[in-house]
Inverse folding.
């Protein structure tokens, strides 16, 4: 008999999921009401949030790889850092991001978000100007410029010598002092002309800006990317429902143990569940993400 009573006591101390389910069913009207309050509150908050627009553009880097640049610049997760980079437009934007492009070592995707679509182009222009004043890029640009200048000078010397050589051979041929065996003046002239074209291309490259440039006009999305009203409402409803019920049972268990410790309640007695439901939904409405992350960290 004593063993049977002991087994019954152990059974009564265990958590019965069916009893928990009956409690939830019994309070279904309150749960549905709190669920609707959470979704409506989320909708109101989402509609009151400022709209965020996004602009994208691909940047071409001169004489420097994307890995080198990103390794020096890093991420733009500091307000002061963004303020230093964009002193004129930092107060107009909400975020800056640089993404690498697949199978490309000299191109980056610049993404800027702002509350006004009209501010995106000016912010991108200022960001490109910042990169062009960056010491690492300026150093590489100057090295590339000096290399092209030296290449132009060498080509000029070779072209001059080739022209002089062609004139000399032509003069000797005309005077009959040279037999044209294995020598083709036309071929020499053609090579000289090709080098002249190569020199012209390099000279044009030197005239063009050699810094970071936009490969195309910025692409600015017409519709705002934030807030995602439907997504916010759905997440708020689902997380508040599950997290709210979980917190209600958790808070109820803690309060019940506290009351039992003080001698105000005894095992087997009930406590009102509605206040815990309301408190659980209220907490989950504002801190559901933090609670879920904390719970997942336990495992």
């Amino acid at each position: 008999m004593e063993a049977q009573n002991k087994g019954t006591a152990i059974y009564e101390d265990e958590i019965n999921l069916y009893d928990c389910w009956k409690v939830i069913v019994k309070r279904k009207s309150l749960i549905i009401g709190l669920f609707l309050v959470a979704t409506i509150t989320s909708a109101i908050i989402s509609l009151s949030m400022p709209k965020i627009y996004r602009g994208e553009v691909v940047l071409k880097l001169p004489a420097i790889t994307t890995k080198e640049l990103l390794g020096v610049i890093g991420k733009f997760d500091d307000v002061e850092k963004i303020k230093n980079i964009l002193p004129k437009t930092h107060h107009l934007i909400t975020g800056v991001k640089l993404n690498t492009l697949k199978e490309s070592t000299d191109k980056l995707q610049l993404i800027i978000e702002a509350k006004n679509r009209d501010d995106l182009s000016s912010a991108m222009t200022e960001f490109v100007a910042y990169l062009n004043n960056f010491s690492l890029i300026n150093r590489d640009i100057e090295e590339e410029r000096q290399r092209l200048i030296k290449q132009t000078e060498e080509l000029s010397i070779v072209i001059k010598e080739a022209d002089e050589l062609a004139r000399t051979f032509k003069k000797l041929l005309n005077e009959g002092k040279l037999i044209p065996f294995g020598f083709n003046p036309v071929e020499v002239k053609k090579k000289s002309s090709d080098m002249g074209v190569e020199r012209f291309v390099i000279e044009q490259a030197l005239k063009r800006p050699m810094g970071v440039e936009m490969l195309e006009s910025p692409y600015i999305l017409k519709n705002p990317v934030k807030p995602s009203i439907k997504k916010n409402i759905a997440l708020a409803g689902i997380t508040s429902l599950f997290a709210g019920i979980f917190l209600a049972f958790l808070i109820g268990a803690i309060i019940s143990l506290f009351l039992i410790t003080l001698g105000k309640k005894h095992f087997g007695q009930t406590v009102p569940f509605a206040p815990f439901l309301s408190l659980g939904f209220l907490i989950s409405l504002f801190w559901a993400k933090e609670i879920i992350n904390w719970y997942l960290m336990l495992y």
Q: What stands out?
A: Residues 1-13 have pLDDT under 50 and may be disordered. The radius of gyration is 37 Å. DSSP finds ten helices and five strands in the chain. The longest helix spans residues 135-174.
